[in-house]
Structures
1.
Amino acid sequence: MLTGMQVAVIGGDARQLEIIRKLTELDARLSLIGFEQLDHAFTGAIKEKMDEVDFSNIDSVILPVPGTSLEGQVETIFSNEKVFITEENISKTPAHCTIYSGISNSYLNGITKKSNRRLVQLFERDDVAIYNSIPTVEGTIMMAIQHTDFTIHGSKVAVLGLGRVGMSVARTFHVLGAKVKVGARRSEHIARITEMGLTPFHLNDIEQAVKDIDICINTIPHLVVNASVISRMPAHTLIIDLASKPGGTDFRYAEKRGIKALLAPGLPGIVAPKTAGKILANVLAQLLKDDLQKRKGKEE
Ligand code: NAP
């Protein structure tokens, strides 16, 4: 349980509702900032404005998946008001207060560092990334179906990268009957691709590998699908780029060549916000329990 814990949930989208639900069930007390337009009421959670929050009582601050903008603004789907989080807010929290965010940027890194508070980026955790790969793959399948006139079954698919997303994508398209080849640069990845019953290729040989494909799914956050690679693809190839913005594709050249290339960020929040929220809620609940235990241990 999280009895006695005071948490500020600042901004966010539908995924945050699952976090609020879970933490209130565990008996934490919540200040909800940026949720004025939310009809639903949660027992143990009160809606507040940023200037009404007593940060000196806050044990944890939970920010939405994108964290903040470079100006410190927090996105608020359930409010029309602009919400900003500042170094001054964070500095008022007790020294043990932890800031949780999906990802971070120079602004958020800066204010947490200057105020000497711990920042946890949930999307850097393997467990979150692997669980999140499930709705990401489902969203990728949706896009492949929407943007092609052939079945995934029997199609030739190149997956670039064998990280947490790449592995799930490659396995699922294989199970759907696609002929999957996977591009990687590490010898242990080439070995794993082979073990999975898929066709490996080294990324140095990407230009050769894409010559006969129908779909290219990129998970590498670097420019790997460059103009030279795109020029080797069959004209009907669909490129789905899952890598974080700006993706790993030369979209300008793809358009010039008439190849459909789609940047598809944030699929879990789009295709399965409830599941994506539950993934974060479960991990956060465990992390907050650990925080509380540690604090109690120190107090005793
Ligand atoms: P990951 O586990 O770190 O995997 C990244 C993969 O890219 C690894 O195979 C890595 O290989 C490879 N790679 C990285 N830099 C490379 C380079 N310069 N050249 C060649 N290969 C390189 O990351 P992930 O969790 O799978 O996520 C992949 C991307 O998808 C990230 O950008 C993430 O933000 C994004 N993502 C998007 C969605 C969505 O909805 N679209 C959802 C979740 C994640 P090495 O091991 O050899 O470095």
2.
Amino acid sequence: MRKKIIIANWKMNKTLGEGLQLVEEITKELNTQTQSDVLKIIAPSFIHLASLADKLKLNGFEIAAQNCHHISKGAYTGEVSAEMVASTGAKYVIIGHSERRMYFGESNDLLAQKVNSALSNNLTPVFCIGENLTERNANKHLEAVTKQLKEGLFHLSPTDFGKLIIAYEPVWAIGTGVTATVHQAQGMHNHIRSEINKKYGKDISSTIPILYGGSCNPKNAKELFACIDVDGGLIGGASLNAPDFVAIVNSIGN
Ligand code: PGA
């Protein structure tokens, strides 16, 4: 039985005060008893990690960074290493989000190095993959995602690969209000699992969590999470207000 996971990706939103308030509102609204088996992770900005870590842990949340640098330390002004992230109490780090790939030119090769750096600092990478609209329309979505998997992750040993969380986020669904259909999401999650099976075998492919992300909201979450190969969600816009985020958390397994 795979773990159910919901991750809030706040992106470049929320001041410290707003973040603290949102955590308070989410905690108040969340029925922790019925959802104790859902792993809930919040990814605020780097600068709020340390300030939010204690509060989040007390309330049953884990904390994630949204990125990290691929080198362990040095003269890289403005950058944040995996070791620094880990020192705040964060256990997870999102790597390869499409906004990082798109706006900051992060390649699969660079992302592979980030994954290595995260793992060597005992952080769990939440590795994002997903095709863009051109690839989807050209019916090249399966091969686009396979390439990201192979180039970003398939250098890992089975032991390290087994520590990952994967997030399938079709680029055309992120922040657009257009969600993948259940058929599209399940089809891709199944494809990802079968590629992992070919490389690492069934023990790993059947236990690795694969989350869906892309305009997930309280209306569509339940049917997406009901897909056999979807183990939860990576939530952007709808994680920025407590009622929507809590409704999404509560839609898993209910
Ligand atoms: P969205 O973002 O829910 O706002 O589409 C998801 C993500 O980018 O992780």
